[in-house]
Design brief:
Blueprint lengths: L10 E4 L5 H12 L3 E6 L2 H11 L6 E5 L5 H15 L4 E4 L14 H29 L2 E6 L3 H4 L6 H21 L4 E8 L5 H6 L2 H10 L8 H11 L11 E4 L7
Helix pairs in contact: 1-9, 3-4, 4-6
Organism: Streptomyces catenulae
Protein name: SDR family NAD(P)-dependent oxidoreductase
InterPro entries: KR_dom, NAD(P)-bd_dom_sf, Sc_DH/Rdtase_CS, SDR_fam
Amino acid sequence: MSDEAADDRQVALVTGAAGGLGGCIARRLHERGFRVALTDLDAAAAADAAEELDPTGRSAVGLALDVRDKAAFAAVRDRLTERWGAVHVLVNNAGHSKVEVLMEITPESFSGVVDTNLNGTFYGCQVFGEYFAARGYGRIVNIASLAGQNGGTATGAHYAAAKGGVATLTKVFARDLGARGVTVNAISPGPQDLPVVRRTVAPERLAQIEATIPVGRLGRPEFIADMAVLLSSEHADTVTGACWDANGGLHMR
């Protein structure tokens, strides 16, 4: 075990953290005193993002992780426990979105999107849910989506279906793990002001979407990150199985 394991700060693992919303969440956790593992399919980008947070590597590390591979989650868990002694928080953020016409989505495309968004969340919850339960403590935060609640406004059916599944899995794992000190919650953001959104959604379509949002603007990723930090807190022990909406009023319930 590394000498760094003597540090009493909690450890959070964020998937899909090389940039975008995942990078924002990792940054906010780090600012709030967590040691953070930024994982991504792009190992080099994850390492660069971690170095920006802490060039020394003492409180931030970038690691490769393909969320479609359950064994990869276990390998990262083992590397982090060796490095820092334990893991306390998992944020399942990694996602894959495509804008495709409903009747033109191929089986391969559907499976590919579901594999990352839904299967990846399932594997992460399984591996770390079991690990957290054995330790008697853990926080899991799943990033769902408004698309999983309303069928999507600018995303494909495969993405909407997968994110709807994430919300359901959150309840299933929360019920199973609640008595063992582990909370599992979801955050369902609406359209966010992120580079990937502006890159994948045509400007005219984005303007139409903004016009339909009751508050009149895209969401702020920093606020989603603040929600993730709150749900990752030790005192969030009576909040589990919940889906926290942040959609500008597009979906009210």
